Amino acid sequence: MTDHLIAPHGGVLVDGLAGEDRIAELRELSRDWPSWDLTPRQLCDLELLLNGGFSPLAGFLRRRDYERVLSEMRLCDGTLWPIPVTLDVPQSVAEAAAKTGFLALRDPEGVMLAALHVEEGSRLRGGDRLTFVGRADLVGIYRLPAASYRPRGSTSPSSIPSGTPSSKR
Predict the structure, then answer these.
(1) Does residue 56 have a cis peptide bond before it, meaning omega lies within 30 degrees of 0?
(2) What are 89-104's pLDDT values in tens digits?
(3) How do strand 102-106 and strand 35-37 relate by DSSP bridges?
(4) What is the pLDDT of residue 151?
(5) Which of 31, 73, 111, 138 minimizes the number of CB atoms within 10 Å of its CB?
(6) What is the pLDDT of residue 139?
(7) pLDDT over 70 for what percent of the chain?
(8) pTM: predicted TM-score of the whole model, two decimal places
(9) Contacts of residue 29, Cβ cutoff 8 Å, sequence gap at least 6
(10) What is the dihedral of CA 75, 81, 82, 83, to 10 degrees?
(11) What is the pLDDT of residues 5-14, one digit of tens each?
């Protein structure tokens, strides 16, 4: 049924959503992690990373990809990519995440939406913010609602649209 669809950009459709067992495990583990309440822009980036909208990206850009995107609008593998998708956080959050190796990403109400395994952090711009540019395990535990940068109403899994990126094609 999907044989008539064109291939996703970069040839890979990314599905960043965790299964039920992994969600329970991440919730338990994240109690000891630092967390970051995402800004509206960061929520949009996270949604597109997790739902495959930013395929072939499976997470925030690594430094080499970031620099190549800025200079050539391409990823290191040559794939056309004009958007520098990064996660800016204050230095204090970056330092705490570097110690644990993980960062819980939350919505403005404090609901954990995703877990980020921190591979790499770099100061990409001036100021007191550090930008995570490591992909590693960015795993979504809730599907963010489409066309909205912020969950509204109940945040129980049953109220959040379901389905994988491939099921929406």
Answers:
(1) yes
(2) 887 888 888 888 888 9
(3) parallel
(4) 31
(5) 31
(6) 52
(7) 67
(8) 0.71
(9) 102, 115
(10) -90
(11) 777 777 777 7
63-85 pLDDT, tens per residue? 788 889 989 999 999 999 999 88
In the block, tokens 């230095």 appear at 91
User: Which helix (H) or strand (E) covers residue 36, if one does?
Assistant: strand 35-37
Other C-beta atoms lying within 10 Å of the C-beta of residue 36:
21
As to burial, measured by CB atoms within 10 angstroms (0-12 exposed, 13-18 middle, 19+ buried), residue 139 is buried
CA distance 12 to 124: 27
Which sign does the torsion angle of CA 82, 85, 90, 94 carry? Answer: negative
What single-letter DSSP state applies at residue 98? H
- Domain 10-57+87-145, architecture per CATH: Roll (3.10)
Exposed/middle/buried for residue 32 (C-beta within 10 Å: 0-12, 13-18, 19+): exposed
Q: How far is CA 13 from CA 6, 9, 21, 43, 85, in A?
A: 11, 8, 22, 20, 17
- Length of the chain as a residue count: 169
